[in-house]
Amino acid sequence: MAARSLALALAVALASIAGCASLAGSGSGSGRYDFAIIGDMPYTRVQEQEYQRVLAALNAADLAFVAHVGDFQFDARPYNANPSLASMPCVDESYQAIYESFQGVRHPMVLTPGDNDWADCAPLKARKVDPLALLEKVRATFYPPGRSLGQRTMPVVNQSSDPQFAKFRENLRWTVGGVVFATVHIVGSNDNTGHGAQTDAEQAERKAANIAWLKAAFAEASKPDKRGLVVITQANPGFENFWPPAAKTRYFLPFIARGQPLPKPETPFGDYAQTLSDALETFDKPMLYVHGDTHLFRIDKPLYSAKTQRAFENFTRVETFGWPDTHWVRITVDPADPQLFLVEPRVAPGNAASRRAK
Predict the structure, then answer these.
(1) N or C: which end of the chain has fewer CB within 10 A?
(2) pTM assigned to the model
């Protein structure tokens, strides 16, 4: 782990040198600007090196901010099977190394936690850990009140500023160029449910806070001076589980032909999907829903209206790359474009070639 910390510290220094480009056009005004999405990295020792190249690419770009969608370390379960593959997750050294890498980004840097970062740490055999204690560590480490991380910080609103939700400092909101951004702490592995009464209680409390935060984000983005909304979270909520029957039949014919059942909506993400759907029945501005979790870069429109039985045309899902693909996504906000958002996958220089060589 000491070697990992040293490697990431060197990456920070190299990325800072690479990031000498001008900050002009980085989104402080009302014109066109870019931001970046990364996630589900770094998992393995190989990916730690590739992550360094991503940091350098981000620092060489002109960006309003960078968001990491969580899972910044390897899952404890595969680590148990092959400890030589990755640095040990769920320990102080891991959190410190990632924090230092974020602080080396010359742009404002935000994180929404993933399940690997705390919820899935319980099976770690090398050291006994308490996932709920790690959740508090994540909150204390990565969420200074009212500010982002990164070398150039930006002001943010923490949900914890509301006494009703005092522990949820990881849910953030900020505005750039009339677009409202919000992180929402929804994680994979069934959103930390199904492991006992304690974890189910944690998820129920966090879900209530998340839904309140989603509604607040829609309310803020609905104001006349706002152009759109971006929600950034970790979990893939499985939107297809909540499609109307006709859409499920149309798009899942190959599964039906093999005798496999259609997806069913009995998942921990149903209330989140319902909150989004209810709000989008009246929200008429462009919206992006950005997540990681399933490691498959995609852009689609997967959320359906209960009223029309058609996909919401102003709602776009973007999933970023994840292990073993160590790339990033550039998203442009262009007020001159009626759809507002332009999405571009970016391959960090050297990462594709190094992958082919292995």
Answers:
(1) C
(2) 0.89
